[in-house]
Amino acid sequence: MNKNEQLRTFLLNNAKRLTEEWYDSLDKNSAIGVYASTDSKVIQTLKEQNYEFHLYVCNVFVEDEKDFFRSFEVWINKIAKDSEHARTPVSSVIKEFMRVRKQYCDCIDEFVRNSKDEIEPELINEWEEHVIRIFDITILKFVTAAEDVATIQLRAHQELIHELSSPVITIKKDVALLPLVGDIDTTRAKIIIESTLQQCADKHIAHLYIDLSGVVMVDTMVAHQIFQLIDALNLLGVKSTLSGIRPEIAQTAIQLGLSFTNIRIKSNLSQALDSDNQVSLQ
After folding, report:
1. What is the mean pLDDT of the segment spanning 159-182?
2. Which parts of the chain fold into alpha helices (H)?
3. Residue-wise DSSP of 170-186
4. Residue 237: DSSP 8-state
């Protein structure tokens, strides 16, 4: 067994000790996020994650670097996606990586002291430099993975917010309402079009009431996009009824030369619903 294999075996045999020493040395008073948890299950999971880290890292002394990271990135990505770590500042996670790196350097010193054979200083330096390099790459990969996860989560939250801001509410079997509230800029108008078309298709809507009474202001581009929505709904076979159009919106539409000819319009939502109810009763 060569020295690299001996070092790997030494680290592997001491993996559980390293985990316990690492957790015991945590500054619980200033710890943040997952490191400050008092939940026994969270603590146990944290220790298991740290122990699994050692099972991977000890192999770095006997494996090619590319092969090593090919398998080790599984652990890195798992930690980046872990809900407890996601609630922990990245700076705190990096701090713990650095503390564990110090453990590895100390372990190398311990291994050298306990070795029966003399170990060349060049090899010791090579090990220590290798540890520093591997931890630096690991930290960078973790930060990158954590940023990717955060971006995906942010995008999902934004999509949910946008969907909630333009909900297609089913009134009865194939009739629905789209109540628009607040300011509508070009970006939101585009999202409303995409979301509404998808929701109408998914819910098999045949008639959609679009109520604009809660819309404070729109610009010329937004007014044009509202009419684009109506045209797109027509292509899907969905009839539209506009209600609550404010004078300024009507003026903007006229200035754009937009035609109301093929659009059902009611002054308010109540009138629109009552009118259709009367038609269905006849």
Report:
1. 80
2. 3-13, 15-24, 40-57, 65-81, 83-86, 90-114, 121-165, 186-203, 220-235, 247-255, 269-281
3. EEETTEEEEEEES---H
4. T
Q: Which two tokens stand for residue 269?
A: 């939502």
Of 47, 88, 87, 53, whose CA–CA distance to 68 is shortest?
A: 53
- In the chain, the amino acid numbered 91 is S
- Cα–Cα distance list, 234 to 206, 229, 239, 252 (Å): 10, 9, 6, 22
Domain with CATH 3.30.750.24 in the chain: 169-281
Classify residue 171 as exposed, middle or buried by CB count within 10 Å of its CB (0-12, 13-18, 19+).
Answer: middle
> CATH assignment of 3-160?
1.10.490.10
* CA dist., res. 61 & res. 248, Å (int): 72
What is the SS3 assignment for 187?
helix
Question: Could you tell me which of 52, 25, 28, 49 has the C-alpha nearest to residue 38?
Answer: 28
Contact (CB, 8 A) for 231 and 200 = no
Task: Report the CATH fold assignment for 169-281.
Answer: Transcription Regulator spoIIAA (3.30.750)
pTM of structure? 0.63
Instruction: Convert the pLDDT of each residue in 40-83 to its tens digit.
Output: 999 999 999 999 999 999 999 999 999 999 999 999 999 999 99
For CA atoms 248, 254, 259, 265, give the dihedral sign: positive
Token pair listed for 278: 């009367």
Segments of the chain assigned to CATH 1.10.490.10: 3-160
The strand pair at 175-181 and 239-243 is best described as unpaired
The number of CA neighbours under 13 Å toward the Cβ of 108 is 22
Tokens representing 281? 């009763």
Mean residue pLDDT across the chain: 87
Token digits of residue 47: 């220790």
74 token code pair: 């599984």
